[in-house]
Amino acid sequence: MANRQPIVAGNWKMNGSQAESAALLTGLKKGLGTVNKAKIVVCPPFILVPLAAKELAGTTAAWGGQNLDTHKSGAFTGEVSGPMLKDFGCSYVIIGHSERRTLFGETDAMVAEKFKAAQDAGLIPILCVGETLSEREANQTEAVVARQLDAVVNTLGIAALANSVVAYEPVWAIGTGKTASPQQAQDVHRFIRGRLAAKDAKVADGMRILYGGSMKAANAKELIGQPDIDGGLIGGASLVADEFLAICRAAD
Ligand code: 13P
């Protein structure tokens, strides 16, 4: 099995004033030396990306966007492109978060286009997949995750997945305090890896598959300890430096 470097990414969502964010970044910077192995990624709202870039430049941490537009530039009022994120030193971008899918109408096809736009700009996509509670209760978890994954794999080809990250985020666990049990998460992570392996064993073996959904310091170790869980995509707990750093250490 590949020796996959864990990734812990913080999705700040639409949170943070300049002052709060500066304090959070200062707190993070102070603790970076306590994290050995895990790759740390911070994804602030667009308007705070320059601040993250300034504060994290020259550290071991990377930063990224939470979304991007598929166009490179032009008359797309309110949008931000991949090359613009790259210009501010972003290495990663979250694609297809469930909030984008449900609140902003992103379809599987749009997610595939965004995935490509990210790679075209030299960004590493963090592709989010996951089922709602009703889908889980209807035993549709694997079907939903397969559909979301296949939308990218079948459009862009499995080779496009080689330099990307997948995040499994059960919608019912996001911001609810209800975490998937380590076994529930592991089952879906194994399914995702298996589905990729059916196309390309090497891509599947190297893929970092992150868990997201009410992950915090108290449950991170047990989750990330599962064989197919390679880190976390953290919402609420990424807004508290010490909590986020404790999750990063758990991923070590
Ligand atoms: P919470 O950690 O707040 O549940 O959010 C998870 C998430 O959506 C990360 O992208």
Structure commentary:
This protein has an eight-stranded parallel β-barrel, surrounded by six helices. It has a single domain (7-251), classed as TIM Barrel (Alpha-Beta Barrel). Helices cover 43% and strands 15% of the residues. The radius of gyration is 17 Å and the shape is globular. The protein is an alpha/beta fold. The protein is built from eleven helices and eight strands. The site of 1,3-dihydroxyacetonephosphate has 14 residues, from strand 8. Residues 11, 97, 169, 174-175, 212-215, 233-237 line the site of 1,3-dihydroxyacetonephosphate (13P).
Features:
8-stranded parallel barrel, TIM Barrel, globular, binds 1,3-dihydroxyacetonephosphate, 252 residues, alpha/beta
Summarize the structure.
With 252 residues, the protein is of the alpha/beta class. It has helices at 18-31, 49-56, 82-87, 98-103, 108-120, 133-137, 141-156, 182-197, 201-206, 217-224, 241-251; strands at 7-11, 39-43, 62-65, 92-95, 124-129, 165-168, 208-212, 231-234. The protein has 11 helices and 8 strands.
Uncertain runs: none
Estimated structural class? alpha/beta
Strand order of the largest sheet: 1-2-3-4-5-6-7-8
Which band does the percent of strand residues land in?
Answer: 5-15%
> pLDDT average, as an integer?
97
Please give the alpha-carbon distance between the first and last residues: 17 Å
* CATH-assigned fold name: TIM Barrel
Kindly give the count of domains.
1
